[in-house]
Structure formats: C-alpha cells, structure tokens
Design brief:
Elements (H helix, E strand, L loop, with lengths): L5 H10 L17 E5 L5 H13 L5 E5 L8 H8 L4 E5 L7 E2 L2 E2 L1 H20 L4 E5 L1 H6 L5 H10 L5 E5 L5 H6 L2 E4 L20
Parallel strand pairs: 1-7, 1-8, 2-3, 2-6, 6-7
Antiparallel strand pairs: 4-5
Helix pairs in contact: 4-6
Length: 202
C-alpha cells in the first residue's frame, strides 16, 4: 500500500520537466573557458555530460566537431533527442592522414570552415555553451593557427561558456582557461586489442 502524502506530491511536481516557456538561462553570471585534455578517454564525453546538465536547465549547447566526419555517431543521434537544447555538428574529414608530415588540403579547409562557423556561432548570442570538440587536435596538427583560436576566447560574449577538447592542449589555451581537466590514461581496451564499442566509443 502506498501513501500519497503532501510532501510526496510536492516532490513529484518538482521532478516534472520544466516547461518550454522557461527561460533559457537562470544563471546570468559570466561564462567560463573550459579545457578537457589528456591522453585518457573521456574528453568529448565530459563535454557532452556538461551539455546534458545544461539541457536540464533549458540552456542551449552547440558542439562543433573539428576532426570527426559526417558518419553516424551516437552523439549526433543522441543530440536529436535533446533538440533544441543540444546540436552536434561534425565538420571534419575524419582521421587526419599526413603527406610528408603535413595534413592534406581537405583537412585544413574543413578545419578553417569549422573555425569560421564557430566564430559566427559565438557572436550570434544563440547559445549558452559552445563546445569546440577536438580543436586542440586540429591546432596541434597545424590545421589552424594559434592566434585565430585565441581570438575566439578574446571575443566571446561574457555569458558564453566555451569548451575546448582534445589532446594536447596548447599551453596558451590552458593559460587562458578557467577550468582545465587532464584525463589520465591508466588502462584502455585497445591495449587488449578490443575494438571501439558502439555506444561507448562512438
């Protein structure tokens, strides 16, 4: 037998999903610059966890992927379930192959297009959080110039939170950040020749 007390009824009400008419943001304090880096797994996953939490407050997150190509992935499909509070846009060309130690033109063009798109999104004022997924990798590979990436931080709106993921993070990016988390690699399934798993890795 269950007893439906007034306290229980209030808890049920509090647990209800916020109506769509709720304000996008209740916290009007300045946004942060966040970096997820390191050799361990979980950098993109941490950024997606942040987006999930923000969606619970009806805050809008855009994730621009600088390396991943337009193949079907769990984060792209999952974002559709959280629409319009999460958008994931793969704008890369996938695994970066190099010729004589330099990435191909298609990868450089894609990275620059993603940077331009991100810059416009940052200025648009439409988002509370923008994740630049694997931009640290694109920068490390020479697909982007450091000065143009730092400019994103300098010109971001005060209340926007900007997230950089990927390994390695440039020291200047780390210097500018408010929060830096370095994922440490302790063990990885690849060490046992276990292939990437659906829903875990992609």
């Amino acid at each position: 037998m269950s007893v439906n007390t007034g306290k229980h009824r209030r808890s049920e009400t509090q647990a209800q999903v916020l109506p769509d008419s709720s304000p996008v943001r209740s916290d009007m304090s300045p946004g942060l610059v966040i970096v997820y880096t390191g050799k361990g797994k979980g950098k993109t996953t941490a950024a997606l966890g942040l987006a999930l939490r923000a969606a619970g407050h009806r805050m809008k997150t855009l994730m621009v992927q600088f390396i991943k190509g337009a193949w079907r992935s769990g984060e792209v499909e999952g974002a559709k379930l959280l629409s319009p509070y999460l958008e994931v846009l793969p704008m890369g060309k996938g695994f970066v192959k190099t010729a004589l130690g330099k990435p191909g033109r298609a990868h450089r063009t894609a990275a620059r297009d993603a940077l331009q798109f991100s810059s416009e999104a940052i200025r648009s004022g439409k988002y509370d959080i923008i994740v630049l997924d694997e931009i640290n990798v694109a920068l490390h590979l020479g697909l982007l110039k450091l000065e143009t990436v730092l400019e994103l931080i300098e010109k971001k709106p005060t209340r926007l939170t900007l997230v950089f993921t990927g390994e390695p993070a440039h020291p200047r990016i780390i210097e500018k950040a408010d929060l830096v988390t370095r994922m440490e690699l302790v063990k990885h399934p690849f060490q046992k020749n276990i292939k990437a798993k659906l829903g875990i890795d992609y």
